[in-house]
């Protein structure tokens, strides 16, 4: 929980609080992604039935992950076709990886929003309507 005070000359007339993730959350997430890409498949030993892997710090798995690229109703995977991606990013969120080599298409989307708002005495706000075009990429 984080809180911030608002008030004249540093007084705390109003206190705003919000829930937030721990500061190390992103760091832990990056480490997990790195470990996931180097995970080791383990199998039961033929003679002893024991599990073998190289280190207690390795991330291991016994069943391979499904192919998340393609639709599979049995597994509940919708695949990545039609999913929004970002051509500017590298790694998992980028179009190269997320679209599984199928490429992506770019669409122009019109965004309509209020802008150039001004307060008029007394007591209303008047805004203009602005139209902007945004490029979005979607996996083929």
UniProtKB/TrEMBL annotation:
<dbReference type="GO" id="GO:0060560">
    <property type="term" value="P:developmental growth involved in morphogenesis"/>
</dbReference>
<dbReference type="Pfam" id="PF00110">
    <property type="entry name" value="wnt"/>
</dbReference>
<comment type="function">
    <text>Ligand for members of the frizzled family of seven transmembrane receptors.</text>
</comment>
<dbReference type="GO" id="GO:0005615">
    <property type="term" value="C:extracellular space"/>
</dbReference>
<dbReference type="GO" id="GO:0005109">
    <property type="term" value="F:frizzled binding"/>
</dbReference>
<keyword id="KW-0449">Lipoprotein</keyword>
<dbReference type="GO" id="GO:0007517">
    <property type="term" value="P:muscle organ development"/>
</dbReference>
<dbReference type="GO" id="GO:0030182">
    <property type="term" value="P:neuron differentiation"/>
</dbReference>
<keyword id="KW-0964">Secreted</keyword>
<comment type="similarity">
    <text>Belongs to the Wnt family.</text>
</comment>
<keyword id="KW-0879">Wnt signaling pathway</keyword>
<dbReference type="GO" id="GO:0060070">
    <property type="term" value="P:canonical Wnt signaling pathway"/>
</dbReference>
<protein>
    <recommendedName>
        <fullName>Protein Wnt</fullName>
    </recommendedName>
</protein>
<dbReference type="GO" id="GO:0000902">
    <property type="term" value="P:cell morphogenesis"/>
</dbReference>
<dbReference type="InterPro" id="IPR005817">
    <property type="entry name" value="Wnt"/>
</dbReference>
<dbReference type="InterPro" id="IPR043158">
    <property type="entry name" value="Wnt_C"/>
</dbReference>
<dbReference type="GO" id="GO:0005125">
    <property type="term" value="F:cytokine activity"/>
</dbReference>
<keyword id="KW-1015">Disulfide bond</keyword>
<keyword id="KW-0217">Developmental protein</keyword>
<keyword id="KW-0272">Extracellular matrix</keyword>
<dbReference type="InterPro" id="IPR018161">
    <property type="entry name" value="Wnt_CS"/>
</dbReference>
<dbReference type="GO" id="GO:0045165">
    <property type="term" value="P:cell fate commitment"/>
</dbReference>
């Amino acid at each position: 929980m984080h809180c911030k005070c608002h008030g004249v000359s540093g007084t705390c007339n109003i206190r705003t609080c919000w829930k937030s993730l721990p500061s190390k959350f992103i760091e832990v997430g990056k480490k997990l992604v790195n470990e996931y890409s180097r995970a080791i498949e383990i199998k039961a030993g033929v003679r002893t039935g024991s599990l073998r892997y190289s280190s207690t710090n390795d991330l291991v798995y016994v069943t391979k992950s499904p192919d998340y690229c393609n639709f599979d109703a049995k597994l509940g995977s919708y695949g990545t076709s039609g999913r929004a991606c970002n051509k500017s990013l590298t790694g998992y969120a980028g179009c190269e990886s997320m679209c599984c080599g199928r490429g992506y298409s770019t669409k122009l989307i019109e965004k309509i929003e209020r802008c150039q708002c001004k307060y008029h005495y007394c007591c209303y706000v008047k805004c203009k309507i602005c139209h902007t075009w945004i490029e979005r990429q979607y996996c083929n």
